[in-house]
Amino acid sequence: MRVLIDSANINDIKKLIDCYQIEGVTTNPTILAVEDADYWDQLKKIRNLLGREKMFFIQTLAEDAEGIVEEALKITSEIDEDVYIKVPVIDEGYKALKELNRLGVKTLATAIFTSQQALMAAKCGADFVAPYVNRIDNISGDGINVVSEIVKLFTVYQLQTEVIAASFKNVNQVHKCSLEGAHAITASPDIIINLHSHPSTQISVKKFTNDWYEKFATSNI
User: Fold this and answer.
1) Strand, coil or helix: what is 104?
2) Which pLDDT band, with edges at 50, 70 and 90, does 181 fall under?
3) Local structure of 10: helix, strand or coil
4) Does 86 qualify as catalytic in the annotation?
5) Which three-class secondary structure state does DSSP give residue 179?
6) CA 53, CA 30: separation in Å to the nearest integer?
7) Partner of 201 at 20 to 30 A CA spacing, among 96, 106, 118, 183?
8) In the 3-class helix/strand/coil scheme, how is 111-147 assigned residue by residue?
9) pLDDT tens readout for residues 130-158
10) Pick the catalytic residue: 86, 95, 176, 215?
11) Angular region, 73: left φ>0, alpha ψ -120 to 50, beta rest
12) Is the predicted pLDDT of residue 221 greater than 70, yes or no?
């Protein structure tokens, strides 16, 4: 399972990449708006930090297919052709996914709330789909089950499209998506840190250290 950082904060991204096995970064207009930086400069800084070997996802803003494709081509021109373009699954988004697939542009179908939306996006050529787990839960749905259904559908129909589960409130949601076979997750820096840690681990390490110093304080390790 790939782990992606859902953030546009350079310091957070650098810290997580230094510590953990991170496969890439996802951004969206809201995340980028939080940063006090020029839009293009920030995207280029993130790409420079990631390098070309890690995945980078950038979302379009247009709501018509022609505009989405135009923005996508500008993004790949300004950054590089390995960037994945995030396209919301509105009617014009499906149309844009088909055209971007024809042009060889890599895509992620985003803002997915049902397994059928994911299947339709995959049929339009999306490389990845991003179901919004916690947002589905917030409208009395079952986000984990939607992820499970998408994975099953892609397996049944032998589709190459992969699932990036997104929109998490806690580690348990990530854990359950992992059990359902999500190919990747994208989460905020705090959730990614919590995926790697547990208070009992810190307590155990502290006890090891204290026990050693009590017994061998005058020795060299």
Assistant:
1) coil
2) very high
3) helix
4) yes
5) helix
6) 25
7) 183
8) EECCHHHHHHHHHCCCCEEEEEHHHHHHCCCCHHHHH
9) 999 999 999 999 999 999 999 999 999 99
10) 86
11) alpha
12) no
- Cβ of 162: how many Cβ atoms within 10 Å? 18
DSSP one-letter code for 82:
T
Q: Helix or strand or coil: residue 75?
A: helix
Partners of residue 112 on adjacent β-strands: 131
**pLDDT confidence of residue 149:** 98
User: How many Cα neighbours within 13 Å face the side chain of 182?
Assistant: 28
Q: Which two tokens stand for residue 183?
A: 């190919």
Q: Mean pLDDT for the chain?
A: 96
pLDDT score, position 216:
87
pTM above 0.90, yes or no: yes
Burial of 211: CB neighbours in 10 Å, binned 0-12, 13-18, 19+: exposed
- Domains defined along the chain, listed by start: 2-196 (3.20.20.70)
Q: Tell me which H or E stretch contains 58.
A: strand 55-59
Take residue 137 and report the two structure tokens written for it.
């839960």
Residues 112, 38, 19, CA angle at the centre, nearest 5°? 65
Mean pLDDT score, 33-43: 96
